[in-house]
Predict the structure.
Amino acid sequence: MAQMKRYSYDLPLAGLVLLFALSLPLWAGDYMLGVGFTLAMWLAMVQSWSLLSATTGYISLGHAVFCGIGAYAMVLALPVMGIAISLIFGGAMAGLAALLIGLPVMRVRGPYFVILTFGLAELAKAIVMQAETSMGQFSRLIFNAPSLAVLYWVMLALAVIAVAAAWLLSRSRLGAGLVAVRENEEAAEAVGVPVARLKTIALVLSAVIPGMIGGLLTLRSSYFDAAQAFDPVLSFTTVTMAIVGGLRSPRGPFLGAIAFVLLSEVLWLRLPQLYMIALGALLIAFILFAPRGLAGMVSRLFASGDKSGKVAGHGTA
């Protein structure tokens, strides 16, 4: 009953937030629109990351790989396909890359998987930089990029798609199989769950949206640089947001994204040298003292409010 009551709060609130987000380009200035773009980006990143990592328990540092591959594929396709098709192409190429690397990578477990996904990002960056150097390209400028408002609406659409995908996955047979992998991979495999196939599918699903996000980030800056596109900070920040927000809660990605966008606005512009220190300190603090993240704190707040109401009303309706 308490869970149904929480959902009754969440759904109208989510609808109001979505309406507010859709209206933002109609009245907000460039600064507010930029903040909204960043918030939608991180929400899409964390939710897409959760399709694999929060569901299976495999902590991936590979989101920077998919962002970079998507951005590079979009840049290469842009003169031929146009902006809209190029973005979709970038997401498809990121998904294809996830499929190709998923077959061997998803057989590795624990800390080795974390290290391997981080190494893949550096390897992909080195390959792209070498390819660009061999072609005499060190960076690429993009002309006639869409306006910030258009890019914001597309990023918001990706965030909504990521949230919907996470919701559908949690209620599907695929999601149930992935949860079985998280709880006990050996037992799941013993009873016939196709563990390797399910993990590879989850990796592919989690890669498509970051691939399109990489393309949108490149369009916004009107500039492609491999070192920036494959920046490992993207992966670290995504994981930190997920942990701070709450790994296994539908509220977690939203709360984590809001917390870190506010943190970046306060620290990055004014005290950039403290930003990464604050990021690391928050991650350590939440792992040690609040493993359920901000979503767990909110749930406890609702629970204490319900108990207070029952005491005040002597447990009657």
